[in-house]
Amino acid sequence: MNIKLNTEFDAIVVGSGMTGGMAAKELCERGLKTLVLDRGVAFEHGTSFVTEHKRPFELPRHGRVPKEELNDVYSTQGKVYLFDEATKHLFVKDNEQPYIQEKPYDWIRANQVGGRSLMWARQTYRWGPQDFTANQVDGHGVDWPIRYDDIAPWYDYVEGFVGISGRAEGLRHLPDGQFLPPMEMTAVEKNAKMAIEAAFENRRMTIGRCAVLTQELNGRAPCHYCGECERGCSTRSFFSAVSVSLPAAAATGNMTLRPNSIVESILYDAKTNRASGVRVIDSVTHEVTEYRSKLLFMCASCLGTTQIMLNSKSAEFPEGIANGSGALGHYLGDHHMGIDASGFTDAFDDRYYSGSRPNGIYIPRFRNLDAASRRSDYVRGFAYQGSSWRAGVERGAVQEGIGIDFKNKLRDPGPWEMQLWGYGETLPNYDNHCRLSPTEVDQWGIPQLIVSAGWGDNELAMRKDCAECAQEMMEAAGFRDISVNDNLEDNPQGLAIHEMGTARMGRDPQTSVLNAFNQAHEVPNLFVTDGACMTSTAVQNPSITYMALTARAVDYAVKEMASGNI
Q1: Of residues 499, 535, 498, the one with CA closest to residue 515
Q2: What is the pLDDT of residue 6?
Q3: DSSP-derived secondary structure for 364-408
Q4: Residue 551 in 3-state DSSP?
């Protein structure tokens, strides 16, 4: 094996997505020469947005992916709601990058620099004080080593950079942030909001808090409501690492970005008890290179980071680097979903909307927040996202009739429809885990990941209540032909794309991997700030929390370096 050594960097960041981009920006702006490694292909703002604004007839298959290709190449990635002909290049090919599902698990992975920040749903909700004390209160999992007040200033900081549109609601359990003007609700959503809040004292509906600009920010233009964010956003209105954080890092002159770089393992120096660098395999040439650094940030996604750490074995860490606790790979969690409620209304048939709003509505958690909302059958809670629309010409596929009369009926919009989607918290569970296969490797010789995770009794009880609450809210809002579904079978862990927990933060090195600053208990210059670091899942979309933790960890790490502790 031909191994060549490269010049040492001050810092290495593994992964260039939501947290990797933020880590790169923060490290570079603090003057550290930083190497950013990503296993995906090169991808640049603007020039790589090859399907942006393309109409269906401009795509070879009008947006569709052949069934054979879905089954043979994208058997897992093809389950994502935004996967189609225009976006498939953003995802890995499952047949080329296999993993082993001991229980059904959908591992959704990106194929380019910028990672999944290019196709996230952009929903950005702060976690509340109750989310950082829940484990301690109900006894599931270990206590978070931080509280809301520790991260609140970093939420402020990151929100100011990212740009979040939203409405302040004054809810303690869903703290307000640094918001740009909110997007507008439709007439149907406004009516539903009034009806639901009148019928249920502790329930609130608000417009989604979204990482899409509604006014200019740092040279980035406000959204023009084209509605296909995942194809790329030339105006940088939609936050992604490629369009915002990585360019900020590059502007310092301190960033070196290397795509097609698969990190095989972390190098460990037993004499100094430090991570000395990483061993990288070029995904195209298979050439091996070792890069050295004083500081290492793992931001390769929850499962990606965990796979690398488990594969980083030494005499001191035979079960993976920084894994003296045995917690690495365990407590894998995701949000459970697949509950939806929909209904129609004949009201507001004289109202419509402008453009394609890249956002929806949000109904925050309202269960198990106080004595009045306490449930006896489960702990934690759930929330809803949703939207409303009027059916267009696509309803012609099921509408009866032929000829001129048939066409004329399609000239006007159809009735209003509204839908709610439930998302629930998952309890920390040691048995939900990932581990390395002892026999199966990928095309680069790296052990494949075995994933074994499912739902427990608490999640199942919560789902029943979530579905019933959705039904009663739709009824209170006056919708007709209400349909409620709980499709658990087609929504295994992973498909919410909020996987987290496999290198959790904690107070005790015997039961956790990381301390309060995302620093490995046992390896002081190793930091993990992607979803792997999370101690519980809460119910809110986690990306803004990941980024806030990342900025906070970089601030701490750089100060520790300056003081000689790292």
Answers
A1: 535
A2: 57
A3: ---SSSSSTT--SS-SS-EEEEEEEEE--GGGGGT----HHHHHH
A4: helix
State the CB neighbour count (10 A cutoff) for residue 392.
11
**Quick one: tokens of 123?**
């929903």
Q: Which residue do the tokens 């233009």 mark? A: 221
Q: How far apart are CA 206 and CA 390, in angstroms?
A: 20
The rounded radius of gyration (Å) of the Cα atoms in the chain is 24
Domains and CATH numbers, the chain: 1-163+239-334+430-451+499-566 (3.50.50.60), 172-234+336-424+455-491 (3.30.410)
- Specify the amino acid at residue 163: G
Encoded tokens for 473 = 């809210």
State the first-to-last Cα distance of the chain, in angstroms, to the nearest integer. 32
Instruction: Dig out the tokens for 137 from the structure.
Output: 């209160």
Beta strands in 442-533 (DSSP E): 447-452, 480-486, 526-528
Distances (CA, A) of 340 to 253, 274, 523: 48, 48, 44
* pTM score of the predicted model: 0.96
Q: What is the pLDDT of residue 1?
A: 41
Model confidence pLDDT, tens digit, residues 520-546: 999 999 999 999 999 999 999 999 999
Helix axes 187-199 and 457-476, enclosed angle (nearest 10): 110
Asked if residue 145 lies in contact with residue 549, where contact means CB atoms within 8 angstroms, the answer is no
* Interatomic CA distance for residues 188 and 147, integer angstroms: 38
Distance CA 72, CA 279 (A): 31
Of 554, 503, 22, 111, nearest to 309 by C-alpha is 503
Instruction: Using the predicted structure, report yes or no on whether residue 318 has a pLDDT greater than 50.
Output: yes
Return d(Cα 501, Cα 305) in angstroms, integer: 11
Task: Answer whether 54's CB lies under 8 Å from 36's CB.
Answer: no
